[in-house]
Design brief:
This protein has about 70 residues and is mostly helical. It is built from 2 helices and no strands. The model has no long low-confidence stretch (mean pLDDT about 90).
Length: about 70
Amino acid sequence: MRKMDEMEHHIALRSMRIAYSFTVVFLFVWMTIEYINTSEFRLPFILLISQNMVLLSSQLIMQNRMGRNEE
């Protein structure tokens, strides 16, 4: 497998960002509808929160590792 050039890398990152944004909006709308209908937070809430927890924790871990490598 060959390495991506800068343009391919930029396109891949932008596509992931758009897909992530779509997922967050979709889960938020689904969560809101579920809450209006049932007055409970169910699966969409769990998915939305866990997805963002994974994103934030992975960013913190990677930033921490990069910080250690620079020293």
